[in-house]
TrEMBL record:
This protein's name: P-loop NTPase
PANTHER family xrefs: SEPTUM SITE-DETERMINING PROTEIN MIND HOMOLOG, CHLOROPLASTIC-RELATED, SLR0110 PROTEIN
Annotated source species: Bacillus suaedaesalsae
InterPro entries membership: AAA_dom (IPR025669), P-loop_NTPase (IPR027417), ParA/MinD_ATPase (IPR050625)
Ranges that cross the membrane: none
One Pfam family matching this protein: AAA_31
Span of domain AAA: 11-178
Length: 276
C-alpha cells in the first residue's frame, strides 16, 4: 500500500469478548461518541450481525441496515454506502445490523471486504461492535482490525474464556493488536482487577469502573452516558480511552509521514550504490 493511501485510510477497531453481557455495546457507543467529541470522523459497524443492538443503545430508528447495503452491492461506492448510514446527533454514523437474526447469513466475507474499506476511507475511525466469541463472522472482523479491544470483567467464567480467547488469538497471530479492557473493574469480586493482567498474561489493560446505574440507564434510554453523564468516573474512563486510542494513531501517522534518520541514511546509501 502506498504511503499516501495509508495516511488516508482510517483505523478499524474491533470490540470483542469471550462472554456475552460484558459491555461491548456500551463501550462501543460511548467510545465512538467520545472520539466524535474530539472532532474525529467516526462510524460504527454493528458487527453483532444476529443480535446487534447499537441502534437501540443510541436510540436510532435505522431505516436501513447492512442487509440493504448487501442488496445494493453491485452499485456500491462510498456515496451510496453513506446513504445507508444512520446519523446520531453526536455526529457518529452507524451501519446497523439486520433486524432479524436469520439475515446474518447474507453478510459474506466478500461483502465485508467491500464495505469495510469504504467505511475506512470516509472515517478516521470505524468501530465494530462484535458478536460473542470467535465465530466466523467475528474472526473476519478481528482479522481486518488494526486494533482489537478484548473486553472482560472480573467473573471467573469470563476470565477463563478470555484467557482461552487470548491464546487462540495468539495462535492466529493476532495477539499483538489486542488490548485488554477490564470492564466493571471496581466491582466487588474475589478477583481484584490489578491481578487480572498476571492471570491473563496481558500487560497494560484499560480499566473501566463499575457503575451499574449509569450503565444500565444509558442502554435503556438510548443515550450514551458520555453525552449526559460526562462528569462521571465512567465517562472519564472512556474519555481517557479515547485519548489513548487517538494519540496512538497520531503517532502512527507521524511515523509513516516522517522517515526515520536511519531509513534516510539507508536510502541514501542505496541510491549511492545504485548510481555507482
Ligand atoms: N462499567 C459498567 N458498570 C456497570 N454495568 C455495566 C458496565 N458496563 C456494562 N454494564 C452492564 O452490563 C450489561 C451488558 O452490557 P452490554 O454493553 O449490552 O454488553 P454486551 O454488548 O457485551 O453484551 C448491561 O446491563 C450494562 O448496563
Ligand atoms: Mg452487545
Amino acid at each position: 500500500m502506498s504511503e499516501e493511501k495509508q495516511q488516508k485510510r482510517g483505523e478499524f477497531i474491533a470490540i470483542c469478548s469471550a462472554k456475552g453481557g460484558v459491555g461491548r455495546t456500551l463501550l462501543s457507543v460511548n467510545l465512538a461518541v467520545a472520539l466524535c467529541k474530539k472532532n474525529i470522523r467516526i462510524s460504527i459497524l454493528d458487527g453483532d450481525f444476529q443480535f446487534g443492538d447499537v441502534s437501540l443503545a443510541m436510540d436510532l430508528q435505522s431505516t436501513f441496515t447492512i442487509k440493504d447495503v448487501i442488496q445494493e452491492m453491485n452499485n456500491l461506492d462510498e456515496y451510496t454506502l453513506a446513504s445507508y448510514l444512520s446519523h446520531h446527533e453526536s455526529g457518529v454514523k452507524v451501519l446497523s445490523a439486520p433486524d432479524k437474526p436469520e439475515f446474518a447469513d447474507l453478510i459474506t466475507e466478500e461483502a465485508l471486504d467491500k464495505i469495510i474499506p469504504l467505511l475506512l476511507t470516509q472515517n478516521e475511525y470505524t468501530i465494530a461492535d462484535t458478536g460473542v466469541g470467535l465465530t466466523d463472522k467475528t474472526l473476519l472482523l478481528l482479522e481486518k482490525a488494526d486494533q482489537i479491544l478484548l473486553v472482560t470483567n472480573l467473573e471467573m467464567a469470563t476470565l477463563k474464556n478470555t484467557k482461552s480467547m487470548l491464546e487462540t488469538l495468539d495462535k492466529l497471530d493476532m495477539r499483538d493488536k489486542v488490548r485488554l479492557v477490564i470492564n466493571r473493574a471496581t466491582m466487588e469480586s474475589v478477583i481484584q482487577a490489578v491481578d487480572v493482567p498476571d492471570i491473563l498474561g496481558a500487560e497494560d489493560p484499560i480499566y473501566i469502573p463499575n457503575d451499574f446505574q449509569i450503565a444500565s440507564q444509558s442502554l435503556n434510554i438510548g443515550i450514551p452516558f458520555v453525552v449526559n453523564q460526562g462528569k462521571s468516573e465512567l465517562a472519564k474512563s472512556i474519555y481517557k480511552m479515547a485519548e489513548q486510542i487517538s494519540s496512538r494513531r497520531e503517532i502512527t501517522i507521524i511515523k509513516t509521514k516522517a522517515p526515520s534518520l536511519l531509513s534516510k541514511m539507508f536510502n541514501k546509501r542505496r541510491l549511492k550504490e545504485e548510481t555507482e
